[in-house]
Amino acid sequence: MNATQTPVVVAVAITGSVPRKSDNPAVPVTPDEQIESTHAAFEKGASLVHIHVRNDDESPSSDPERFARVQEGVRRHCPGMIVQFSTGGRGRDPSQRGSSLYLKPDMASLSTGSVNFPTIVYENSAAFVSELATAMRTHGVKPEIEIFDLSHLHGARRLVDAGLMDEAPHVQFVMGVKNALPAEEHLLDVLLAELRRVLPKASWTAAGIGVNQARVMDWALARGADAVRTGLEDNIRVTKDRLASGNDELVALAAEAIDRHGRRVATAAQARELLGLAPG
After folding, report:
1. Cβ neighbours of residue 163 under 8 Å, at least 6 residues apart?
2. What is the pTM assigned to this prediction?
3. How far apart (Å, rounded) are the C-alpha atoms in residues 127 and 174?
4. What is the CA radius of gyration of the chain?
5. Which of 231, 208, 232 is nearest to 219 (CA)?
6. How many whole angstroms from its chain centre is CA 239?
7. pLDDT tens across the length of the chain (280 residues)
8. Dihedral Cα 265, 28, 106, 255, nearest 10 deg
9. In a 3-state reduction of DSSP, which class is residue 253?
């Protein structure tokens, strides 16, 4: 690849709270499976891993021991890879959502407002968001701001103004969740314009859920996104009729999209520089 091409961070969301193995046998559930799947994705070019953990019955878990096991394995087998913990709320006790931040992952997700999901209200009160942001600041964890609604950008700005976050968070627009932001291209332009006004120093990406994954990735790359997101958390299929064989296959497809847009996959070291993180 041309060394002058702009690098793009490839983030892989390996598991999520749903789906289960019954939806796609490639979904990694145990810590060992998650480490193995992350390593395969790393070998294909992923430089950031977004981690949820599961209990033995596959239900969402907040167990710090499981987060620690996955983090340790990733750091051993994927040198320099950015480790990002989820603080998401599907199926997890709110009081436990930040319970693993003391492990000091490089990053953690942070939703700055509430939103309707298909079957629940994903609740993130202003006070709770401030608590999570404070814990991240205390432990030196960089937030990835999850944007499910335009107002959530302003929630992030309030955290900056309160001194709970610096001026350059990493922002992810989540598009295609039923009852939240639709996956429509013109809405990404609206969101980007507001991001550049409200948080001009932020890096950004966009995640398309399910069948929207590839198209949202193309929209983001066409607009100069710093990162793309893929993985079995968001999308378990390659086509309507074929399940993905693993996170590594989805990462390979993301790498092909990056190449089509005249850019190149970032190394782990480049990813850390792009997102303002210390060297691995």
Report:
1. none
2. 0.97
3. 22
4. 17
5. 208
6. 22
7. 455 689 999 999 999 877 789 999 999 999 999 999 999 999 999 999 999 999 989 999 999 999 999 999 999 999 999 999 999 988 788 999 999 999 999 999 999 999 999 989 999 999 999 999 999 999 999 999 999 999 999 999 999 999 999 999 999 999 999 999 999 999 999 999 999 999 999 999 999 999 999 999 999 999 999 999 999 999 999 999 999 999 999 999 999 999 999 999 999 999 999 999 999 8
8. 10
9. helix
Let me know: does 208 contact 176? Beta carbons within 8 Å: yes
Q: How is residue 209 written in tokens?
A: 């859920």
Q: Could you give the CA distance from residue 274 to residue 193 in angstroms, rounded to a whole number?
A: 20
Six-digit token pair at 19? Answer: 């789906």
Residue 129, SS3 per DSSP:
helix
Both tokens of residue 138? Answer: 């205390």
Neighbours of 70 (CB within 10 A): 27
The angle formed by the CA atoms of residues 220, 205 and 274, to the nearest 5 degrees, is 115
C-beta contacts of 268-272 below 8 A and 24+ residues apart: 268/42, 268/47, 268/78, 268/79, 268/80, 268/81, 268/82, 269/80, 270/7, 270/9, 270/47, 271/7, 271/9, 271/47, 271/48, 271/82, 271/227, 272/80, 272/82, 272/106
CA atoms within a 13 Å half-sphere pointing along the CA-CB vector of 266: 24
Q: What is Dmax (Cα atoms) for the chain?
A: 48
Q: Where are the alpha helices (DSSP H) in 54-125?
A: 64-77
**Whether domain 7-274 has CATH 3.20.20.70:** yes
